[in-house]
């Protein structure tokens, strides 16, 4: 086996059944998002774009400590979603850029601070926008975010959440499996 077990599921897992999804759209700046992320505790972070030279889209007072966190700097608004899946409830947030392209996904885990999750969503201003296109995760990382001030800028770091609960690890595997199934359906159509 190469790499963490959840990454292998991104490419080998069968399709998963999807239920009805409840969505709401919220305006959110990268700085506001970066300030709220550390309060979440452990989340599943999935970058949806390749980090390139065009990041960030606009100046902001936030730096990221690793290239895989660069999609956080593209966020212009959030799509907060929830569903009742065959294996239980799920909640996630898609970060969408100014052109309407998904750039990241954060999944709520049993180990996530639910009050921090709700506070993050309360910071967004409701907006009306068309739904984003379907997306495929490039990778998956169970992370804990940390923010520190550095010469007037916010530095955002992501640390691997090494201590997930058994339920958190199980849900992480199911989420990654469902994402792999969604990507398989998109490629087949």
Would you write up a description of this structure?
This protein is of the alpha+beta class and 189 residues long. It contains 4 helices and 9 strands. Strands 3-9-8-2-6-5-4-1-7 form a 9-stranded mixed sheet, with helices on both faces. α1 runs parallel beside α4 (166-188). The chain starts with a helix and ends with a helix.
Quick overview of this protein structure:
This protein is of the alpha+beta class and 189 residues long. It is built from four helices and nine strands.
Strand-helix topology:
Blueprint: H1 5-12, E1 21-27, H2 30-36, E2 41-47, E3 62-64, E4 77-85, E5 88-96, E6 102-112, H3 114-123, E7 125-126, E8 141-150, E9 153-160, H4 166-188
Parallel strand pairs: 3-9
Antiparallel strand pairs: 1-4, 1-7, 2-6, 2-8, 4-5, 5-6, 8-9
Structural Rg = 16 Å
Give the strand order of the largest sheet, numbering strands 1, 2, ... along the chain: 3-9-8-2-6-5-4-1-7
How many structural units, i.e. domains? Answer: 1
Q: What average pLDDT do the residues reach? A: 79
Order of helices and strands: HEHEEEEEHEEEH
Derived structural class? alpha+beta
Please give the count of helices.
Answer: 4
Low-confidence stretches: 5-18, 183-189
Instruction: Profile the largest sheet.
Output: 9 strands, mixed
Q: Tally the beta strands.
A: 9
Q: In angstroms, what separates the terminal alpha carbons?
A: 30 Å
Helix content: 25-40%
| Principal-axis shape | globular
What proportion strand? 25-35%
């Amino acid at each position: 086996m190469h790499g963490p077990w959840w990454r292998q599921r991104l490419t080998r897992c069968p399709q998963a059944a999807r239920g009805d999804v409840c969505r709401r759209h919220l305006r959110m700046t990268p700085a506001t998002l970066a300030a709220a992320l550390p309060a979440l505790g452990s989340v599943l972070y999935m970058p949806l774009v390749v980090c390139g030279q065009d990041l960030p889209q606009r100046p902001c007072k936030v730096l990221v400590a690793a290239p895989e966190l660069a999609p956080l700097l593209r966020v212009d608004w959030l799509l907060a979603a929830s569903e009742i899946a065959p294996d239980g409830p799920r909640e996630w947030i898609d970060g969408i850029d100014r052109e309407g392209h998904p750039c990241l996904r954060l999944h709520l885990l049993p180990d996530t601070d639910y009050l921090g999750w709700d506070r993050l969503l309360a910071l967004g201003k409701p907006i009306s926008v068309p739904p984003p296109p379907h997306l495929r995760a490039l990778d998956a990382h169970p992370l804990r975010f940390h923010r520190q001030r550095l010469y007037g800028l916010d530095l955002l770091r992501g640390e691997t959440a090494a201590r997930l609960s058994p339920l958190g690890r199980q849900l992480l595997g199911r989420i990654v499996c469902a994402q792999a199934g969604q990507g398989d359906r998109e490629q087949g159509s």
